[in-house]
Amino acid sequence: MGSQYSDNVARAIALPDDRGPLSYTVDAAQGPVRLRYFAPPAHLRAYFGSLYYFTVSADHYADATRADVPQLRLMLAGGGQYHFQDGTAMATPDVCLLGPTMGATRFELDRPARVMGISLLPAGWVALHGGDASQLADRLCDLAAERGDVYQRLLEGVRALGDDADAMAALCWAELGKLVRTLRPATWELLAAIDAWLVDEGSPRIETLAETTGLSPRQLARLANKYYGAPPKLLARKYRALRCSARIALDGVSWQQLCDEGGFYDQSHFIREIKHFIGLTPHQLQTEPSAVAQLTLLRRSLGGDVAVLNRLS
Questions:
Q1: What is the C-alpha separation between 85 and 276, in angstroms, rounded?
Q2: Would you call 50 exposed, middle or buried from its count of C-beta atoms within 10 A (0-12, 13-18, 19+)?
Q3: Least confident residue range of 71-75, 109-113, 288-292
Q4: Pair 110, 80: CB distance under 8 Å
């Protein structure tokens, strides 16, 4: 972990968990922001990347989040707006399903907030929403209004637990576990192939994925849009930027070195890609990352049996 990053994060520790199905957590604080991650139990790791409890004590707070997988966010207290990369602003409902984002997304909170969030992998998206993920890319919806009061009951149950993050996480995993369903073997194989392709080092080529899956580029585009929210080429750019940002901020790797290794045209192209997907330049990641950027990167600490794509998401 780079020294600048270590100096800026007030506290970041991995906690073994002996209280049931939760494996371990990552707990960190930075200024008025506190973020605690919970690794998913083993039987849900194919569906969800992580669960997190996010609190902000400031009366007003604004920051940006990197491009990401879909997020289910239960607003336990507070509220505000999301500002997407195309300039669209949307108010946050109490049961917020944020679709896959293909660029950095700014958010504003207008009062102190407490949020319980869950990162959705493609199989989790199918379980909780089921529609074409590209239709909600860089947008959000009120999941309680669209998919029934099971989510409203979950929100009320989590709120009733006060500040007991362990109990809230356990309740979320228990209730979400009731909603997941097994996909067809062919679908699992496709998702595994795309995941492996996305986390491959360098700049993944669509021809490689087509050869691995036996599908045409047109078929891959349709299925990637359905499950991941974007066609393969855009997904490859997104995950390349996520990998590079983590290596810059956490490992202290020179961004000039990554530029050479990652298949970018030149340094200007590298800077534009990182800025677009992360919301910060490579230099800012090294020297002055925002609080949320720092704490979001700690998801990579959820190691062990959690897949690489889960840690990036």
A1: 8
A2: buried
A3: 288-292
A4: yes
Q: Is the pLDDT at 7 greater than 50, yes or no? A: no
d(CA 302, CA 202): 23
C-beta contacts of 266-274 below 8 A and 24+ residues apart: 270/244, 273/237, 273/240, 273/241, 274/241, 274/244, 274/245, 274/248
Q: Tell me the average pLDDT across 19-39.
A: 67
Q: What is the pLDDT of residue 4?
A: 43
What single-letter amino acid sits at 282? P
According to DSSP, the residues that pair with 253 across neighbouring strands are none
**Interval 126-182: pLDDT, tens:** 999 999 999 999 999 999 999 889 999 999 999 999 999 999 999 999 999 999 989
Q: Alpha helix locations (H) across 131-279?
A: 143-147, 150-159, 165-177, 185-198, 206-213, 217-228, 232-249, 255-261, 267-278
Asked if residue 69 and residue 43 are part of one domain, the reply reads yes
Amino acid at 63: D
Which residues constitute the domain of residue 224? 185-292
Encoded tokens for 188 = 């699992």
pLDDT tens for 66-88 read: 999 999 999 999 999 999 999 99
Reading the block at residue 20, the tokens are 């049931």
Of 115, 150, 182, which marks where a domain is finished?
Answer: 182
Report whether pLDDT(46) > 90: yes
Q: Are residues 242 and 280 in the same domain?
A: yes
Distances from the Cα of 37 to the Cα of 22, 75, 107, 287, angstroms? 11, 16, 20, 24
What one-character-per-residue DSSP string does 31-96 give? Answer: TTEEEEEEPPPGGGTTTEEEEEEEEE-SSSEEEEE-S-S-EEEEEEE--EEEE-TTS-EEEPPSEE
- Is the confidence at residue 303, as pLDDT, over 50? yes
Residue 311 within any structural domain of the chain: no
Residue 126's CATH number: 2.60.120.10
C-beta separation of 52 from 301 below 8 A: no
